[in-house]
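Researcher: Last one for today. Full complex below.
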Amino acid sequence: MARLKCVVKYDGSGFYGFQVQPTNRTVQGVLERVLKEMHKGVEIRLQASGRTDTGVHAIGQVIHFDSTYDIPEENWKRALNTLLPDDIYIQEVIKVSEEFHARYSVSEKEYHYFVRNLVEPDVFSRNYSYHFPYEVDIGKIKEACRYLEGTHDFTTFSSAKSTIKGEKIRTLYHASCIKHGSDIEFIFRGSGFLYNMVRIMVSVLLDIGQGRRKPEDIPILLEKRDRQQVGKTISPNGLYLWKVKYNEENKII
Amino acid sequence: MARLKCVVKYDGSGFYGFQVQPTNRTVQGVLERVLKEMHKGVEIRLQASGRTDTGVHAIGQVIHFDSTYDIPEENWKRALNTLLPDDIYIQEVIKVSEEFHARYSVSEKEYHYFVRNLVEPDVFSRNYSYHFPYEVDIGKIKEACRYLEGTHDFTTFSSAKSTIKGEKIRTLYHASCIKHGSDIEFIFRGSGFLYNMVRIMVSVLLDIGQGRRKPEDIPILLEKRDRQQVGKTISPNGLYLWKVKYNEENKII
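Model: Here's the assembly. Have a good evening.
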């Protein structure tokens, strides 16, 4: 039995999110159908670093599964990509030890969020970037990002519907914002993220960029631990699961 | 009665081409449905500079239609964009005289074709760029472009199924190719283009870039006037109707 770790890229536009569903097209559903096909009808259950919602993209989602096949890594990659539709692509396949778990072994996750800051909408980026037509003060957003970094209770910045029990304390190692021409790119790295956390943080950061709030509001909002204090969860279209890091690679050489 | 000229941008991925069809979703179909809605159920027939095939995009398609409404240009634009789906966008609306015709008044058309020249395919550009994983000599393509410029019989470079009767002599004012990182952009400007002409030219130019043909083959191929001499018509996904020019603006001030 071999455990395979795969780095997966997908365009979320054509999926009802990651997690398998009985009828809707999902990333996990498509991947498991292809794995079943490769294994002559035997169901193969995969584990992912986490789910992504409808419309959310991935550059470096990580999954693992177990197989009785003894195939070189490069051939796994080729075989899977041949069977997969063109909106999912396996970037890398690595044989790992059985200690590796795509979800439980995660040490850090990185998300990027893209905003197209132009007055007029763009038909070509509508699924890949959030259209925000208002003037933005990037300096203010950068200031606010610094307040988000660190270990905080992120209740204010997570979905009230969250099914996660227990504490909502997370550590954000990095939060930043860069402007490239008319695109704004947000980068977040953390030990873990709560449900909708990136989308709610970006929504508040854009409020700050627009002058509707101040950077110094961030510590006050964190303190309140109340989702009602902030505006709506921003569109999933601009969100990318960029990278997932693990403490140990667990690569088998 | 007012004649309105519109510059239209669309993402061709979600359409069965431009021309109206009884059941499939087309650009003309959607535009005419919206015009009918605006005109309280009265059918409005539009004219375009030309059709685009399934999967072909437009940055500057031009259409015209006649309306009994007397609305300022900016309001036309806003009203249409409010009713249109987010893969079609009206860039500009101008009132023109009745001499203007989106198809018959065309003086020049410009097409761009994008190629993503990377070994691995990219899930995000699959609908917007043609994936070509082989090494390319851009210098050779540029040399070949010069042979395409000018007035020639383009029979070799047009669909044999073409319904256009008569001569296939056209004037290509400009043919060029630029490399930006891993993207190759082809630019063509001409008095008119035959069916599939850009897609067949790019296919041959990539053969030349790959070393499978020589730039000097172009005049020989033109001379043969035979579609069978060249390879397949390349994918529509990389093709953009970029701009349509008219001799006179016919703008009403």
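Chain A has a mean pLDDT of 95. The first strand of chain A starts at residue 2 and ends at 10.
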